[in-house]
Amino acid sequence: MTSTKVAARPSPKVSDEVRQTTCYMCACRCGINVHLQDGKVKYIEGNRNHPVNQGVLCAKGSAGIMQHYSPARLRAPMKRVGPRGSGEFQEISWDEAYEIAVSWLKPLREKSPEKLAFFTGRDQSQSFTSWWAQAFGTPNYAAHGGFCSVNMAAAGIYTMGGAFWEFGQPDWERTKLFMIFGVAEDHDSNPIKIGLGKLKARGAKVIGVNPIRSGYNAVADEWIGITPGTDGLFILSIIHELLRAGKVDLDYLARYTNAGFLVNDDRDSPDYGLFLRDADGKALVIDRATGKPAPYDARGVKPDLAATHEEGGTPYRTAFQLLAEAYLDERYAPEAVAERCGLSPERIRWVAAELARVAFEEEIVLDRPWTDWKGEKHDRMIGRPVSFHAMRGISAHSNGFQTARALHILQILLGSVEVPGGFRFKPPYPKPPEAHPRPHAGVTPGKPLDGPHLGYPMGPEDLLVDEDGTPKRIDKAFTWENPFSAHGLMHMVISNAHAGDPYRIDTLFMYMANMAWNSSMNTAEVIRMLTDKDDSGEYVIPRIIYSDAYSSEMVAYADLILPDTTYLERHDCISLLDRPICEADAAADAIRWPVVEPDRDVKGFQSALIDLGARLGLPGFVNEDGSQKYADYADYIVNHERRPGVGPLAGWRGKDGKGEGRGEPNPEQLQRYIENGGFWISHIPEEAQFYKPWNQAYQEWAVARGLFDAPAPYVFNLYLEPLRKLQRAAEGVGEIQPPEHLREQVKSAMTPLPHWYPPFEQELVSEDEFPLHALTQRPMHMYHSWGSQNAWLRQITNVNKLFVPRKVWEENGFEEGDWAYVTSPHGRIKVPVARMDAVNDKTLWTWNAIGKKRGAWALDEEAPENTKGFLLNHLINELLPPRGDGRRWSNSDPITGQAAWFDLRVRIEKAPPGPPSEPVLPAQKSPVGRGPKNVAYGEDFK
Amino acid sequence: MHPAPSVIFFTAFSGLGFGLLAWLGIGLPDVTGRPAFGYYFIGYALAVGGLLASTFHLGNPKNAVKAFSQWRSSWLSREAVLSVITLLVIAPYAIGRIFLGTDWALLGLAGAALALITVFSTSMIYTQLKTVPRWNTPATPVLFQLYAIGGGALLAGQGAVAALLLLVLGAAQLLAWQKGDRRFAEAGSTAESATGLGRIGKVRLLEPPHSGRNYLMKEMVHVIGRKHAQKLRIISLLFASLLPAGILLFLPASYATVLLAVVVHVIGLLTARWLFFAEAEHVVRLYYGK
Amino acid sequence: MTTLPAKTEKKLGLVIDLDTCVGCHACVINCKEWNTSNYGAPLSDVDAYGPEPEGTFLNRVHAFEVTPEDGGCAQTVHFPKSCLHCEDAPCVTVCPTGASYKRTEDGIVLVNENDCMGCGLCAWACPYGARELDQLAGVMKKCTLCIDRIYNENLPEEDRVPACVRTCPAGARHFGDLGDPDSEVSKLVAERGGIDLMPEQGTRPVNKYLPPRPRDSAAASGARLEPVAEEPKGFLAWLDKALEAI
Ligand SMILES: Nc1nc2c(c(=O)[nH]1)N[C@H]1C(S)=C(S)[C@@H](COP(=O)(O)OP(=O)(O)OC[C@H]3O[C@@H](n4cnc5c(=O)[nH]c(N)nc54)[C@H](O)[C@@H]3O)O[C@H]1N2
Ligand SMILES: Nc1nc2c(c(=O)[nH]1)N[C@H]1C(S)=C(S)[C@@H](COP(=O)(O)OP(=O)(O)OC[C@H]3O[C@@H](n4cnc5c(=O)[nH]c(N)nc54)[C@H](O)[C@@H]3O)O[C@H]1N2
Ligand code: SF4
Ligand code: SF4
Ligand code: SF4
Ligand code: SF4
Ligand code: SF4
Ligand SMILES: [Mo]
């Protein structure tokens, strides 16, 4: 009996070869080392040199192998042969697919380009896809941001020229108190965890504000189990306490914000609430030295925050005084807000005291000289080591924009933005709203659009409405309903297109968004709209083209499928023109490249779009002789120039490959990226690393790298004048007027200083009837609907139970294994329940997007995802409950149009035990068959 | 614990078999020739059959032969080695009895002792497991011995002695259940000690690590309803002990009566053995909120 | 031989920080990924796309809820669990085939799959649920402490740590020699009061768990800010003065 124990120091060969690329199991964009053996992917690990993940890898990233070999992968282009939703398809050639698409799109472009609506999901090529849409000439383009987190992004940009999310990060190395609002996971998936790990290693404090104590909130030292939708109140109450105690950074406010700007204080003036400006349009402040008005950015001027002023008989006060008056009001006193927030006044006071203590008593000083925009030299950098992060928990409410603004104002009052220990921007941010484009919707048949689709309106004149007020875009973005809808409103496209409101479209072209399932509110109704036919028997939305890589629910509802590759099989670029991978200390971008070749007849979507662009003869996609300009996406990445010398990738530009940010195309560029591990990084010099909006060295560094073309310092907007301009219009001033029914909403919601108002849905439904809130959270190990096709990930969560707070649990007499009906004003679902104690006692919640439709994702029809998993989306409507005015109000933030997922109100009651979860929808046919019975990955390597 | 049929059959039948062989080893009943063949055949069939059954639950039976190697440390290995030795030692004795009409008493005694030691080592496979407090008590070997000796006596046609032993068995079984029901708590493992979180407060499982079941749960987190268990306990007590004892004591002695008693006893034994596994709580359940 | 070594030269093991673990399951999947194509038989998944998927994992993350006895606020604790490489490993001594053993050189508890007959007894003997019998291969699988990584000369030096440690985004997992009081892990255990799971089982685990730091202490602190002014007017006066000072 011989036994063969492992050697004392075993050293097996790990793999034949390592190829470094960028992960796309989620949008976090970590660097990965893909180990190959015999040409097969053997192991994926984090790239230690990569700025985003520094070597670590999350569960999804590690499960990449199972995604890459998923049985749900699409195999070839397909055209629909059964009715929509049936899942019956026929595989066709790419040529045929292109012919079909061209036959649909070409006539549209020549006659009415707006009849194409092109919307994309969480891809990372928006600078490219938007460019394609612009060349096509349709105004109807956007990505998914409108239903995702535009409140966070827009409030950040409007307030301080950048947001949390992908635009900035806490100074993880130095911060001493970190407060995180409404985050379960976020896009900065690994970086937040790495950062929290650093704080924990140092013993720094974490405060978690979230109705649910799991994940990041589980490790928080202090948990604030707030009632959903009330963060604005809570934050303004903290501000109330800070102001009352004088714990604000006045020097910072005077220098770097519009706190000193003079605001017209005459209620009867047409300019009431607007800034006093000089002839050049520069806002004026009172200089403390002279006591006289002076342009805010003039050299040597020190704004007096306490000043009042009169000019031409009109009184002016500083924005800071308005702010102090607004928030010192008793309605924001801890006692006044506590109950509504589900907290105690003591808790709120403690938070305020702790923030003030750490910010002002544990000040950090770095001995780093720097020079500000006014030329003043500073020999040190002073840091307030409190930092914040927030995400959809505050933004996915109909009061989310103002709540996010309030949070930014809190950060700014503490002087903790762009200082050591505080919150820091990542290039290309900071970038104020003025530096972003305005939205465009100028259509000329056969010609490109008159400018970029999306942008940041600065007043009523930038809205996209016709003279008669008709929205120009199918999603009604940039209208009075949601003037600052900077990311568009993808969640309204299907329902507007179905209703023909504001007009009918012909072709809906979507990419990487499961709109027939988890990314839609009111899923069953959306499915109805997608399959609804008019009197002539035609589909109401006549044509749907969709690109997915997997057999998702949405695939079944399209007429033509353009199958994408997996992320290991294609070129991609994560560009500074879009959503790059920069760090606070560095600019960086990255690529994906085919580390393995596809074994199916699939094509990277961007390459397909390039082919299609050429076949449609779109400008930019063809040479003068009409031939195709770029062979594929890789060719585009290297050779396309957005502005002379500035292209999709910033690294190794120029003939010599030495250019950073600027330089002519370099044919060797992709090779250089591959050699460098798939990314490029350029570090910001030390003196330029903080105070970026006001730091001369940073501004110059950014210009040199092509982030912008001239230095553009600016101050933070405590007081947001563009909102005041909208409000003013609603008060009847000016040519451009909101429609009557929106007047009151614009007046009350668009305050230039954020105020809290109750989320709309909560106002409209009775608390007695729907006493509870219902939320979803992202599981850290699942990416929306993609995870369930993954043999490893789905084992962790293939059933999502509804977690019920103990109090509600006991009131309803629930027991382990029970099922419940959950009812909202829009519908009822049946779900399995589980008890939780560490949760706000008015809040039910579940994991997001675990429930699946039978037949999708190559899963067995009896898979628990189909029989016990469920979507909360069935209870959420894109429209609010009727207000009795005959109109249908959209369930979104009135400023940005952000979908208000988390305003949902429900009640719960016991249901007969056992599956299936309801609603039960009919199965779709799987165009790719079913996955194998068993998997023993790794067998091939033995 | 998961009451796997293979393990139930293994312990029940090999116990019976070795019990019978032990009686035969001390010359009870004092048979030779054909009848001896019958008794030994039954003894060997049960012992070997039980041992074979045990291999059905092996994931990788081709390595089963290696189970003989670790007798110095492993009770399972000891059990394997001992059962083979026992069967080998008893074999010549049996051959002597059957074919030569001899009674090599010493060899028989040695075989009998070995048979009981084999049963003891079987019982120790379970007794040794601290992870299963209900098993981890002297009651386990005692019960296994009583089942073997009692059942063996029954098979060996030891009438009143068998009846007496079965009654003792019944009493012991009752006592074991009573004590067993407290064992888990006494052993002191709790969700708090399992997680080390007891210093903070009361611990309960919020979410299991995976939605579905896994090997551990299937194997070790078997939950059986109290009422159901109570019923089965009564059945097994009746069938394993009281009824066969009664049959032996009150029905006229005959092969048929013995056969009836045996059948009834085996039903009780299997039920008791099923319960032995099904009721045994493994500490790992604490991680699964059970 | 399945007797335990009287003493091991090193006590290699993991230290898991429950104060930091966010429950992301990264360690679970990276462990699966590494180990399915390295040491021993692949970690199979049965019914992988069906109604009852069930695979072999060497590490799983549970979530517990802990409620202070004094009625304080309940806490959530994410709890990763793999083999603790016990000094008195009962899983080793019960093994009839000699497949299970504890290494003298570093204390790692391993299963030699070529010897294992898949009887499952070692899994019964383990209090922690750290062993799983692979359904397809029929052999016992357990955490190897990534023995094929930690000594692997084909890996760069810095990567010679377990897969779960290398991948953990929060840095909640630490690897080292717990037999050496001066090692980083030993110091961490000393500093943070690292604990054994189920000490009453007498297994003397090598792996240690760092308990969560005290939570929610703020409620009792009573800290609050002192006002400089109660009225907006008073605030303006304060502001004037404060501006003078800068
Ligand atoms: N109840 C509730 N609903 C929500 C949310 C919530 O919090 N609660 N969150 C909302 C938010 S913020 C978002 S962003 C949405 C997300 O919802 P979706 O955008 O629908 O997200 P996914 O499920 O990831 O779907 C994306 C589609 O892309 C496909 N895909 C994956 N990889 C590739 C690829 O490489 N190429 C191509 N072409 N396709 C690919 C997938 O197969 C899938 O069909 O969900 C929204 N829905
Ligand atoms: N693993 C994984 N990572 C992902 C995704 C994924 O699907 N999986 N999706 C990506 C996408 S598209 C997005 S948009 C981001 C979103 O990242 P997150 O914002 O982290 O996403 P959610 O899971 O929606 O988390 C919302 C959190 O807010 C809390 N919350 C809800 N209402 C309130 C409230 O009123 N106040 C407070 N304070 N909290 C509240 C919820 O309890 C929840 O914890 O994540 C991205 N990253
Ligand atoms: S967070 Fe995870 S899934 Fe997302 S990119 Fe990074 S490793 Fe990949
Ligand atoms: S944890 Fe379990 S498997 Fe690991 S050594 Fe200890 S007893 Fe053995
Ligand atoms: S399953 Fe394998 S390793 Fe475990 S005790 Fe049995 S033979 Fe030994
Ligand atoms: S040490 Fe290796 S085998 Fe053990 S849990 Fe970690 S990754 Fe898995
Ligand atoms: S990877 Fe780290 S943080 Fe994530 S579950 Fe494992 S130990 Fe916890
Ligand atoms: Mo999102």
Provide an overview of this structure.
The complex is a heterotrimer of chains A (942), B (290) and C (246). With 942 residues, chain A is α/β, with parallel strands linked by helices. In chain A, strands 5-4-25-24-23-6-7 form a 7-stranded mixed beta sheet, covered by helices on one side. Chain A has a 6-stranded mixed beta sheet with strand order 30-32-31-34-29-33. In chain A, strands 11-10-9-21 form a 4-stranded parallel beta sheet, sandwiched between helices. The model of chain A has no long low-confidence stretch (mean pLDDT 96). Chain B has 290 residues and is mostly helical. Chain B folds into 2 domains: 1-128, no CATH class; 156-290, no CATH class. Chain B contains 10 helices and 1 strand. Chain B starts with a helix and ends in a 12-residue tail after the last helix. The model of chain B has no long low-confidence stretch (mean pLDDT 96). Helix content of chain C is 22%, strand content 18%. The mean pLDDT of chain C is 96. Chain C has a single domain (12-244), classed as 2-Layer Sandwich (Alpha-Beta Plaits), CATH 3.30.70. Chain C has 246 residues and is α+β, with helices and mostly antiparallel strands. Chain C has a 3-stranded mixed beta sheet with strand order 10-1-11. A two-stranded antiparallel ribbon of chain C has the order 2-3. Classes of the chains: A alpha/beta (942), B mainly alpha (290), C alpha+beta (246). The structure holds ligand MGD (2 copies), iron/sulfur cluster (5 copies) and molybdenum atom. The site of one ligand MGD has 30 residues of chain A, from helix 5 and strand 24.
Biggest sheet layout of chain A: 7 strands, mixed
What is the radius of gyration of chain A computed over CA atoms, rounded to a whole number of angstroms?
A: 27 Å
Q: Which blocks of ≥5 consecutive residues of chain A have pLDDT under 50?
A: none
Please write the string of helix (H) and strand (E) elements of chain B: HHHHHHHEHHH
Mean pLDDT across residues of chain A: 96
Q: What is the number of independent domains of chain B? A: 2
